[in-house]
Amino acid sequence: MIRVVLPAHLRNLASVESEVKLHIEGQVTQRSVLDALETRYPMLRGTIRDHVTKQRRAFVRFFACEQDLSHEPPDTPLPEAVATGAEPFVVVGAMAGG
User: Fold this and answer.
1) Full-model pTM
2) Rounded distance, CA 75 to CA 90, Å?
3) Which domains does the chain have, with CATH numbers?
């Protein structure tokens, strides 16, 4: 079971509490986690990734095991601690400006 932590505005949109638990078949990657998340919560489609290209939105970041995974290829396996559910996959809304 994969644990996913969403920012407050996406939790509100999906009507979920602090973290979402997902079952992933096969290898646990950013793509497989986001595909499962969007399948279970279709209202999140297009909020984290572009509808057409499936590329991460500019002001969205991904973290796991205290590492920024935002620029990793989407099919790179996530850390074992995430795959086993010991650590969450965290989606963060980034801010720009100064």
Assistant:
1) 0.92
2) 17
3) 2-93 (3.10.20.30)
**What pairing do the DSSP bridges indicate for beta strands 60-64 and 89-93?**
antiparallel
Q: How far apart are CA 52 and CA 75, in angstroms?
A: 17
Query: Strand, helix or coil at 88?
Result: coil
Instruction: From 30, 31, 33, 9, select the one nearest 22 (Cα to Cα).
Output: 33
Residues 6+ apart with CB under 8 A from 25: 32
Which residues fall within 8 angstroms of residue 78, CB to CB, at 6 or more apart? 28, 29, 30, 33, 64, 69, 89
Q: What is the pLDDT of residues 15-67, one digit of tens each?
A: 998 899 999 999 999 999 999 999 999 999 999 999 899 999 989 999 999 99
How far apart are the C-alpha atoms of 22 and 29, rounded to whole Å?
A: 13
